[in-house]
Known about the structure:
The protein is mainly beta and 1496 residues long. The chain has twelve helices and 101 strands.
Amino acid sequence: xxxxxxxxxxxxxxxxxxxxxxxxxxxxxxxxxxxxxxxxxxxxxxxxxxxxxxxxxxxxxxxxxxxxxxxxxxxxxxxxxxxxxxxxxxxxxxxxxxxxxxxxxxxxxxxxxxxxxxxxxxxxxxxxxxxxxxxxxxxxxxxxxxxxxxxxxxxxxxxxxxxxxxxxxxxxxxxxxxxxxxxxxxxxxxxxxxxxxxxxxxxxxxxxxxxxxxxxxxxxxxxxxxxxxxxxxxxxxxxxxxxxxxxxxxxxxxxxxxxxxxxxxxxxxxxxxxxxxxxxxxxxxxxxxxxxxxxxxxxxxxxxxxxxxxxxxxxxxxxxxxxxxxxxxxxxxxxxxxxxxxxxxxxxxxxxxxxxxxxxxxxxxxxxxxxxxxxxxxxxxxxxxxxxxxxxxxxxxxxxxxxxxxxxxxxxxxxxxxxxxxxxxxxxxxxxxxxxxxxxxxxxxxxxxxxxxxxxxxxxxxxxxxxxxxxxxxxxxxxxxxxxxxxxxxxxxxxxxxxxxxxxxxxxxxxxxxxxxxxxxxxxxxxxxxxxxxxxxxxxxxxxxxxxxxxxxxxxxxxxxxxxxxxxxxxxxxxxxxxxxxxxxxxxxxxxxxxxxxxxxxxxxxxxxxxxxxxxxxxxxxxxxxxxxxxxxxxxxxxxxxxxxxxxxxxxxxxxxxxxxxxxxxxxxxxxxxxxxxxxxxxxxxxxxxxxxxxxxxxxxxxxxxxxxxxxxxxxxxxxxxxxxxxxxxxxxxxxxxxxxxxxxxxxxxxxxxxxxxxxxxxxxxxxxxxxxxxxxxxxxxxxxxxxxxxxxxxxxxxxxxxxxxxxxxxxxxxxxxxxxxxxxxxxxxxxxxxxxxxxxxxxxxxxxxxxxxxxxxxxxxxxxxxxxxxxxxxxxxxxxxxxxxxxxxxxxxxxxxxxxxxxxxxxxxxxxxxxxxxxxxxxxxxxxxxxxxxxxxxxxxxxxxxxxxxxxxxxxxxxxxxxxxxxxxxxxxxxxxxxxxxxxxxxxxxxxxxxxxxxxxxxxxxxxxxxxxxxxxxxxxxxxxxxxxxxxxxxxxxxxxxxxxxxxxxxxxxxxxxxxxxxxxxxxxxxxxxxxxxxxxxxxxxxxxxxxxxxxxxxxxxxxxxxxxxxxxxxxxxxxxxxxxxxxxxxxxxxxxxxxxxxxxxxxxxxxxxxxxxxxxxxxxxxxxxxxxxxxxxxxxxxxxxxxxxxxxxxxxxxxxxxxxxxxxxxxxxxxxxxxxxxxxxxxxxxxxxxxxxxxxxxxxxxxxxxxxxxxxxxxxxxxxxxxxxxxxxxxxxxxxxxxxxxxxxxxxxxxxxxxxxxxxxxxxxxxxxxxxxxxxxxxxxxxxxxxxxxxxxxxxxxxxxxxxxxxxxxxxxxxxxxxxxxxxxxxxxxxxxxxxxxxxxxxxxxxxxxxxxxxxxxxxxxxxxxxxxxxxxxxxxxxxxxxxxxxxxxxxxxxxxxxxxxxxxxxxxxxxxxxxxxxxxxxxxxxxxxxxxxxxxxxxxxxxxxxxxx
Length: 1496
């Protein structure tokens, strides 16, 4: 007897025994589980719903049930609810691991469980129940450390009891079913070619189930050592070993060893790996991908991986030549670094591999596919598949590739999908797909180009364009590799080349198959082929199976098989043809025989019938011809497909339409379909796909929302594109409508004896259409057992609250709600919690309901709610709003309003931008505050891009309206206007007008009753809404604007004004804010309309709004009122200017003066008349400014009619003439005149500097003098203290006064004032303490007095006084010191022998001492030199009989106690001529000495 399937597949081992106590415990455990499940159902349905969704998203093979609760009875020997942890079922697992806990457990508890299964029917029941529990058990669950330790201890205790029970039952019941392993089918030996896979199979029986281990040359095979090399499977007693990509090292003896508790048995088999003769050896270890199970520990195999794909790539659009990246973020839980998922990319279901066209990257979190150079071949449905050992998750999106801009205007797009088929030694068929865009004119054909791999030289294969999308290329060099490309051509030019094909080698297919898997040949394409030694002298036989494989207008392709009789020498072929019905055979390839059993014939006459045959040849000769083919008519055998059937568009999203169409009937070799679309009325067809799609259904993405499109489809095969199908019906692009999602948040709003009022929240997804109603179902719940659902009503209800009647009092009910729209009724909500139908008697009101947020901005929003259904014992008199951040704890609720609000709405301000909030509302009556409502969904405080507000508008007719615009509208969207957040129903006061995405609410008669908050909500959008508050001030402002618009005036920037222009002309003008092209104006004087003419020059500048009228001069009859009248459409205005009396006369006089001035300025004239200014040096400068000066112009200055003469002629530099009066005084007073004249005329200017005029000048001079005064300074003298200040210039007319202690000073002999040059001073002789204080010098500045002050007190006085004393003593010393007053000459020249007598005056008190010096030596008087100082005033110096020895420098030194002074003179003694020689020699010598002294 074999084991049941579920036990083998899941490897489940039951823990049921013959013990009735254990069976009883298991039954009790199951009842407890049911009770626990029932109580759990009363919890949060939101959490349950999320858990169910999570379970549904998990793999079906690996459910995640709850872990059973372990319960312990009072007795130690009873264990209730134990379940043995096991591995999940899977079809592949690791074998060859011995002595593990798993294997030992398999041989003990597992064996005993199976034996008990057959020994007792009770055991079968226990096993069944235990199996169900085990299947539900979750292998890996996050636990706390305490829980894990407790369960580990319980498991150890349980294992001990199981072991004791096993030993007991082993003694009681020796099993007769045990038998040793036995090979039912032994593994078979294999001989394989290198690079092939081989699989060894065997079938083993035995009880307990044997464990099979595989050995290679008696060494256990470890699949972890060679990941991907070996694959071991065991299924229902069938065991296999698969060896991937065999090489020489895999040649060995393999042994399968089966073992259980009864014994061990082995079976042998051999694997021999062979290699083709002459092949190049490749690496013995091939590169293989690492399986996902590599590196897993024994416990890792039970792990269930949850895969979540986020940040997905969307439908993408690119252009040929661009680079595009597709990426997704992948979250795998649990995240194991040693186990990484495998990322696979598919295009249209075909697995992609990295190449130069695409690069793949996996960072561990984000998978990216980069298309480096887009081509139309890259268009398609891209799928990213994340593969783990638990299964895989996939995500798909379409990529569209548009054609690149054509190099030649009007040229077609490039072909695509170039491929090579049926390649042979010198022949290949190139195929491609036609482009969707022909450039506006039909495609004439295609050119095929080839290029040898490794070169860059492209050569064209066909001279004339081929229309068929297949072309045979001949003349290839055997052993070389080629790439191909195709270009389309129409009458406008040639397209861009297609993407090149994959390289193809020109070689025999048999050789290619034999060389499959070898390394690539060198770039020359040369392949090493080894043949047997040829035999000589064998003529080849007839080719066989000759057939026409393809026939078109351009060519015919023949194919055949080589003859059986050909020896070992290579053969070639000659092809012959003849016209059908004749026997005239003509050899086609006369010069070079072909090597391939394929041949393409060109240049055949279209419409004729031909027969063909082939001969073989080699070095031994030409063989017999083959049997001829049937007559073949030259022409296209493949017809262009017929147009597809009816095209049916269906809405999908707001940018996508799903197309379905009928197949093209009787189409052969159909490649696919091209779809085109056009916006209705545009007449321009655009391709929806640039790569043919297979099937008859396609998603057209990238359409414009709200536009209406028409579609058509054409079929494609190698012969060309079919005619287009009939155009589809026009369809507007918008999201498809679906039934809404289930409502949620069911709550009870009121309960009475036999009815309950329910409230719920709107579904999160309404299906793209407005919800038309709701349906409520209910069912009874009795002792946790639910009954059948009953409909509470038949007709749908529009409100999100409903009273369910006819209920039973004190009965418990559950409810569910379904939403409906025009698409149908959605699925029901999750059952609500159980509610008991019993009447509410509480005094406070029930909870408000149907909370909704609108006008959400970055720092505010408006919350609306419905009042509670149950109001309590008194009417509701207010509401409180609570707010908290969505992530905050329940204790963080805070109240928005301190005082209850009676309104059913509130604007909540001061929110934090980017923060999510939740809200709730509580109602209040006289009894107190009731239970809070259900909280809202989290609302993010943000202002969405493109958010607009309600705008008030007053049109030209004075109509006041509110305008709201929305750019996110769908076709089903509506504008809903509300006043104070209640929908406007009174059309007598407000009218609604909606056009497109703009809605206007028009006030019919704005008044006080229209005050309030006006809001507008756009349905079928993501909460687009705004409001406008109309208060009294705003209403007053709008009414004023309305009046202005009803009775418009032309706004004026300036009223009518008058000004004088050049020549004394008079300009009347005004400026309007704005004038249209149709504006009109009238000029009126004293009710008489003025006309443009000689007297009145009128002009209007409508761009600037300036209107003017110019008169040459004002005559007496022009006194009166001037008026300008304006009219611009409905708006009018006028402005008047009254010119009468003195106003008119003044203007007339000024006009005449201006006219005369203009005449004056025609010759030399004064721009600025003669004036004066005082220079910084206090001089007076008379100046005038002149203009229109020529060289001949002269200027003459006069004073009192007397010309002032100048030496130099005036140069009129810078047009300024000046006359400088230095140190002006009264004599300069007079009348000054300047005359400017030349041949053109003259001008003069007078300046009267007399009387007041002169006084003004002098006052300015005085002011300049006063401002030039320096600050007062203190100076000590030998007589006292002097205060002084300097001025630039002083005149006698300048009034100066001194003040001491703010009193004007009187002057005495001790205190004097005066002027010395430009110094103004005050002398205080012999100062005393009374002279201390503040002194001020006041200088008249033409208006008042400018003062300069100094404080002579304190330290300043002490310092000045000390300096005065010092100077006084110095003066006394200077007066009384000894001095030589005069009388001494500087040099005295005297004749020798004469007497010298000198006398000088000497002064000093006391009388000084007198000393005479000669040559700086003191002299002593004697008879020769007599020194006298009589009367102590005169000192005399007498030398009798002067000799040459008396020559020298003499000095008189006078000295007393005050000082010393010296008077010097020189005495020079000369000898008359003739007497010099008589002089004694000594005298000469002395004379010479004295002469030297004189020089010194």
